[in-house]
Amino acid sequence: MEIAATCILPGTNRGRLLSTRQPISFWGCVDPATGNISDKRHELFGESISEKILAFPFGKGSSTGSLMVLVLLRLNLAPAAIMIIRTEPLLATGPVVGKHFYGKTFPIVNVAESDFKLLKTGIYAEIVSQHKGSCVRI
Question: 3-state DSSP call for residue 49?
């Protein structure tokens, strides 16, 4: 199945999907030293986001989240890609800066809320994020 997507950050990557209906803050919800969800109140508590296609509806939290994404990239613990309904500019800042400093980044795509509901943890997904014609294959 192919889902239409809007490119936020270009790139192509694939992996297992890790999906949640709860928002994620990279500051306080993700441990940058392990790549695991560290917020005990989050439904993905204890799960690793590393090398996963991370799907969540929207981000929450502080501008420091971009720094946490940068640390995850530096330590090779970042997600393979992010699929999201609504991307805040601060979320995209970490991968943009990571490309500049470490030559590492990951694609981010926005998907429609109706398509987001189709995303389930464990399924294999491929993100093809281009400025024209982005898609998600599941």
Answer: coil
User: C-alpha dihedral over 19, 25, 28, 29, to 10 degrees?
Assistant: 0
40 φψ region: left (φ > 0), alpha (ψ -120 to 50), beta (else)? alpha
- What is the pTM for the complete model shown? 0.94
| Pick from 138, 131, 113: nearest CA to 7 | 131
Identify whether 62 is a catalytic site residue.
Answer: yes
Give the model confidence (pLDDT) of 75-130 as tens digits. 999 999 999 999 988 899 999 999 999 999 999 999 999 999 999 999 999 999 98
- Asked whether the beta carbons of 65 and 91 are under 8 A apart, the reply is yes
User: 111: which residues sit within 8 A by CB, 6+ positions away?
Assistant: 3, 4, 5, 6, 83, 84, 85, 119, 136
Q: Of the listed 19, 62, 66, 134, which one is catalytic?
A: 62
Strand partners, 17: 53
SS3 (DSSP) at 32: coil
